Amino acid sequence: MTMTNYRRLPKSALAVFVLSFLALLATTTPGANALQSMELKYFDARGAAEVIRLLFAIADVPYTDTRYTITPGSMEAPEFKAAKESGDLDMNLGRAPLLVVDGTTTIGQSKAIERYLAAKFGMMGDSPEEAAQIDCIAEHCVDVKMAQQRKGFSMFARDKTDDEKAKLKEEWFGTDLPTFLAKIEKAVALTSQSKGYAMGSKTSYADISIFALLRGMSHRCVSQLFRTFCCRREMSFLISILILIFVRSSWVYLLHFLQSYPSSNEHRLHHASRTRTDLEGGRKM
Amino acid sequence: MQAEQELTWKAAEKCDLLLSIADRIAKEKKIAKWIETRPVTNF
Lengths: 285, 43
Fold this sequence. Notes:
The complex is a heterodimer.
Chain A: H1 2-8, H2 11-28, E1 38-43, H3 50-59, E2 64-68, H4 78-86, E3 98-101, E4 105-108, H5 110-120, H6 128-151, H7 162-191, H8 205-216, H9 222-231, H10 233-260, H11 264-284
Parallel strand pairs in A: 1-2
Antiparallel strand pairs in A: 1-3, 3-4
Chain B: H1 2-11, H2 16-27, H3 29-37
């Protein structure tokens, strides 16, 4: 009966149905977008790309993290210069970061990339209103960073003396920043429904922005660096190899030394015979 | 810079909600792994 019904369907209608079903499946299956290739192009620095990298990390989506090396001292980046000259970065007006999707679509402006990825990874809330509020909180975080830059006490501010910078820094961390953060706290309280979440009770782009502002952008302290250095499997392996090479070299050297150094009796006899020969040789002369 | 990070943290000491968000994200395994393994850079 069922077979008969199927046979009654025109072949073209069946094909359209199957294709539509597959298309729907492709667009609604979670992770379907993960099949896209993603490449982030930025300097070998956290800077304006670290929130993007954090978004990739929390979504656990693989991507190519292309980094332009910065030459220490001169602060030049030859790979970046070459990319700029080749037109690779045109979408971002010759600047970085740049996100390349599927090798063809390029997206510039760090915040545009962040919002694009956050939406793609389901971190922009459940409605356009929530998305706007999440965006609003993320922009507050940007405002804080911009205000800190404007304050002008960073190592790049060359128009101020160290004393002036110290005073500005004290003002920023002692008064300006606490005031700014208290205001953001009030704003976030309006959207948060659960401790630890800026929007409702679901991880959002706003959470990542707050994290990046408060602790994500820090340098690791020396102890952390040391721990990382020592904990890395590759580094442990390298250290083990170096120790083995050292032990083996020492052992070979010791063996060589022992073999080349005559025993005490042999040495005495050898010494006596040499002395005799020398004396005889001396007499002959 | 590390000192600046600590100063930022101190500046947020009255912001329980913001700190709870930063703490929760820091504890996310994938984020913790990235922070631990990301290339060490000056900026």
